[in-house]
Amino acid sequence: MVLNREAPDSGTTEGIAAYHFFDARTYRGLVAFFSTPSLDGRNATLTLDTAAVRGAMLYDIVGGAAGPPAGVEFDFRSNTTHVPVVLRSRPLVLLYGRVPVEGFEAEKERVAVSDTGLITVEEIIASHQRFMTDQEFRLKSYRATGRVVYHYKIGGSNSIDVAYDNAFFWDDAQGAEWQQTAMYINGVRWKGTKFPDIPFIQPEKVVSLPLDIHLGADYEYRYVDRESVDGYDCYVVAFRPRERGRSLYEGKIWIETRTFARVRLSVVQDGLEPPITSNDERDHYAPVAGPDGTTYWLLTRVEGQQIFTTGGRNLVVLREIDLHDFQINDPGFEDARRQAYASTAPILRDTDQGMRYLKRGPDGERSLEQEPTRKTLFAIGGIYSQPGLDYPLPLIGVDYFNYNVGGRNAQLNAFIGGAVNLVTFTDPKLFGRVDGSVEALLLAFTPTDTVYLRGEKRPQSSVDVGFQRVSGWLGTPIGNFFRLRGEYGLEYASHNRDQETDTFVVPSDTPQQTLALHGEFNRAGWSVTASTGRTWRRTWEPWGDESLPTAETTAEFPVAACDTPGSCLSEFDPSQDTFQTHEYSLAKQFFLPAFQKIRLEASWLAGSNLDRFSEFSFDFFGDRVRGFSGTGVRFNRGGIARLQYAFNIQDVVRFEASLDHGYVRDGLTSEDFARFTGFGVSGNVLGPWQTILAFDVGVAVDSDYEALQGSTELQVVLFKFF
Question: What is the pLDDT of residues 177-230, one digit of tens each?
């Protein structure tokens, strides 16, 4: 006896009558049947048209007996279930579940038209489940070659690119394992015997998956459209959690109309626990021929973005995974995996708690790491040089990062460099999804603030400016891709005469307070930022140049009140003890094959009530135009545009070429905008003793101020991981 449809129907064979009912809301089925008295007691087989049957129970309504039928067989090739029964002339009822209750869309909405007529979203999902059930039954194991690339960046900054070559193993017993066979830092292959320990934070594992036939009423489904994806005609189905608050997915799936295989999956993870604030992923599937002549649809590419709260800021991680060279149900699978275990290469296993290393012990045996790497330590040493420095500035220090301080996911980052010291403490879950941070910047030197007027240095107005700063802020994600942060900063600024200072009255030392608001959006390589701030100086006494303008200065600045226009004592404005700044930026990164990268960036900066000591300036570590750091170019309004292209020579050296252009105005000395163009080359190679040598050179190639053309800045740094 065979029942082929899942609407209420009836079917008969000689002497047997049967009625089949199916509830699309609960995905439970019922078959009622009985025979003529002449067939009473004979054996028969009831065949259901799905292999995804669970919880079958047979009821003898009149006789009062009930229990699970014995000898049930699941045929995944034909997607059927065979239930042995004993015929009775009285009614018998078989009750079964195909999926748990309310697992899918309750309403029988007619959603698509095909050559064979109408199809419902329930039928699309059910057919997809049948396909997946059959594939899972046939797929015992497979291995592949893959590359995993991580692009790490703080907000809209340039990314650091870390990649791993992998041998990938999967079987139905252990799940997925990754043998990391090679590591690349910005495309340069690591030659050491041990990979640097780079902490990785990962989203909470989603236990309840959409479209999973084994799980319950966590998702609802809606038909969207019919599209062509990678040459395959697909149904597009949207899904979302029925209840918010748990870590679940929301997104769309593209299901091939002929086979009902998944072709693409796009999801955003909800209900994440800090420090993870966002997880956005797109999975791509493709058909792969198996050794039995059948086709398997396997994951071939993953594109994703994850956002973490790190040091009170957004750490954006763009991830790419590519898998190829599949070997399905390979007889040599176990031998290949044993060889991987016996090697010294790191191996990661995907567990219910997330990715964990299989650590190799002294005896060569592998054991599962219970906690992922939570801290790292590295040292730096190098030099930095720019115009205005009498000699290159040494860069020496140690950085310690721990993102599980005290076992409560609190984060500590401390850079101790003697001359420059920066300590940040962050609680990523201070109040629910609100994080809190405290940061201290301590400088053991006082850089000289030098005035350059149209490229000409005015040493008589140089001021040694020192500052120490403590700041704190609260931040929270809004949605999956936007973050808002409010900041309070307390800074103490000291001002002293430089050895060349002549006729200049230096400003008073003063504490100053700043309130600022920052917004940031990140998705698919795009970054948009906006910030505004207001600063109050507690003490701001008259300061400035007392000298009369020279003939040369008057010729250049006809209305100059002193020999350093824009810094004249007679022009002091006490209202400038309060000022505002506003900054906006837009950046996009494009990742190309062979570790190539293109980056575009544009920013606009403006302020009000700014003076010499609060104006913006070109800075190597901030608003940079290559070659112009330290040249004294100041402005209260202007934009900076940047084009960068990164490439590698083999896997030995990384180069990144940058072309910067600034278009700015210094309202203290002119109403006209000036142009500045700089070019630079940065990169990295492997240094001695398992170190990374990074270099960055910038040259001022063109400027409206001819005296600045040819200015050069240089940084060379050696990194050592421990």
Answer: 999 999 999 999 998 778 887 765 555 554 444 555 333 457 788 899 899 999
* Domain containing residue 584: CATH number: 2.40.160
Residue 682 counted as domain residue: yes
CATH code for the domain of 13: 2.60.40
Residue 464 pLDDT exceeds 50: yes
Please name every residue paired with 526 in a beta bridge, in sequence order, or none if there are none: 523, 588
CB atoms within 10 A of CB 640: 21
- Residue 714 located in a structural domain: yes
CA separation for the pair 141, 517 (Å, rounded): 52
> CA triplet 194, 200, 205: central angle to 5 degrees?
130
Residue located via tokens 């990785």: 200
For the chain, give the number of residues: 722
Single residue among 97, 129, 161 that ends a domain in this structure: 97
* pLDDT tens digits, 543-590: 999 999 999 899 889 888 999 999 999 999 999 999 999 999 999 999
Count of other CB atoms within 10 angstroms of residue 116: 6
What tokens does 330 get?
A: 């390979």
Q: pLDDT tier at 382 (50, 70, 90 boundaries)?
A: very high
CB atoms under 10 Å from CB of 292, counted, come to 10
Query: In the structure encoding, which two tokens stand for residue 206, read together?
Result: 């989603």
C-alpha of 92 from chain center: 57
Report strand pairing: 456-478 vs 434-443: antiparallel
Could you identify the residue written with the tokens 């004294």?
632
| pTM for the predicted model, two decimal places | 0.81
The answer to whether residue 146 is domain-embedded is: no
In a domain, 700, yes or no: yes
Query: Residue 44's domain spans which residues?
Result: 9-97
d(C-alpha 354, C-alpha 151), whole Å: 20
What rounded mean pLDDT belongs to the chain?
A: 86
Structural domains of the chain, count: 2
Give the start-end residues of each E strand in 195-275: 219-229, 232-241, 249-256, 262-269
Please say which residue of 97, 112, 130 terminates a domain.
Answer: 97
Contact 454, 555 (CB under 8 A): no
Nearest to 170 by CA among 125, 135, 196, 214: 135
Strands 597-608 and 637-649: antiparallel
Return the number of other C-beta atoms located less than 10 Å from residue 411's C-beta: 25
So what's the pLDDT on residue 214? 39
Return all residues near 479 (Cβ < 8 A) that are at least 6 apart: none
Q: What percent of the chain has pLDDT over 90?
A: 52
| Cα–Cα distance, 3 to 408 (Å, whole number) | 57
Residue 706's Cβ-count burial label (10 Å; 0-12, 13-18, 19+) is: exposed
